[in-house]
Design goal:
Blueprint (H helix, E strand, L loop, with lengths): L20 H15 L3 E6 L5 E3 L2 E2 L6 H7 L7 E4 L8 E5 L4 H7 L4 H9 L3 E4 L3 H9 L4 E3 L6 H14 L12 E3 L5 H6 L3 H24 L6 H14 L4 E2 L4 E4 L20 E6 L1 E3 L2 E2 L2 E6 L6 H20 L7 H17 L7 H6 L40 E4 L2 E3 L15 E3 L2 E5 L4 E3 L8 H7 L5
Helix pairs in contact: 1-2, 5-6, 8-9, 10-11
Length: 456
Amino acid sequence: MSQTSNAAASPASPVAPLTGRNVHAARRAQLMERIGENAAALVVAAPVRSRSNDTSYHYRPNSDLWYLTGFEEPEAVVLLLPGHPEHPFVMFVRARNREREIWDGWRVGVEGAKEHLGCDAAFPIGELEERLPKLFEGRTRLIYELGADEAMDRNVIRAVRKVQPLGRKGKRAPRVIEDPLLYLHEMRLVKTPGEIAALRRAVEVSALGHVRGIRCTRPGMREFELQAEIEYVFKKHGATAPGYESIVGSGPNACILHYVANRGRLRDGDLVLVDAGAEVGLYTGDITRTWPVSGSFSPEQREIYDLVLRAQREVIRLVRPGLAWHKLHECAVKILAEGMVDLGILEGPVDKAIEEKTYRKWYMHGTGHWLGIDVHDVGSYARDGEPGRALEPGMVFTVEPGLYFHGDEEGCPDRFRGIGVRIEDDVLVTETGVDVLSQGVPKEPEEIEQLVGADA
């Protein structure tokens, strides 16, 4: 990395183009309406993380702060004060600094925060500790995520303690700290048309990468080579980065759920499992496909693949408004357990295998998760004491059943040892059912076999 660089030119606006200032303003207004005029909401930027010595990881903004502002700089704090007569939207940001801008790029600064982000008041981040107690006055509740940033936790608690004595003088002061899950994260769970469009694009780019990966696969290539081919396509089509560390596991590595070493060699006769998604405009796709390195499934591989595909199809077929979330996983478990009993992997009867959870040796994860700005997006999976909340139009999530037969696992039939299969699609709940956003990547076994190695 070079130790000298030119300052970046000042951008027209720090707000991401896929959303825009008005969109973020509407989100803030909605959140303030939800929390009420006796509350304050405090959202803190993600810290810069050191990679090694004096280099840092590529900065990725805090999802909640970005959702409310579109702002992508570190060292920032957003404070919302519903109903405040002068400044309901307050920000603390880094001050302009010519020397640091020469090295690291342009900063929006205090005045720029008001101009570009529309905040009513802005202050240098260095003044946060001094100003926070006064800003908390008159609020009885604080919406803030405790535990995410210890230094900020201490700062917030000190500010609360400073202002609480005002209660003895008849003034209001924060007495309760509430989790943003109750308000902000519920907002983020149901996507707007603009967010759906952004997610659709991220999934489309993710799909292009997967198709490229299937087409370029050949025996002898390394897992990281396949990863590079896929992520090149992500970048070429506008992704800032993968939405998470890409998983490229061939042979027995496909049985490791979060395998990211990606150093193995693709061997003739093995399967390769690729779980990768592109982040475009901070929304991410999340797709998994499993295919034969040689271009042909073995009979044993095909048996497992067909079983996982059948489970996935049936789960997707169930998706509709009003369906309880947990019913999706129950459907996948039932089909996978039935199939494993039929294949002699599990001891029947099926109901007993499900009740005793013996299937979990081979299927140990959930069938899906919310998807959005975060790959494992925010929002509760249960509501009002119910085991699974009802699906609503605008929810986006993954459907990803899988089976993994570790070679050293006791009771694993010899013919299935080392086979790992997961098939994952991104789906949108519509008014009438489901829209599979990731259908641009083939998953029918015959289609995959025809595509493998087409560009190798």
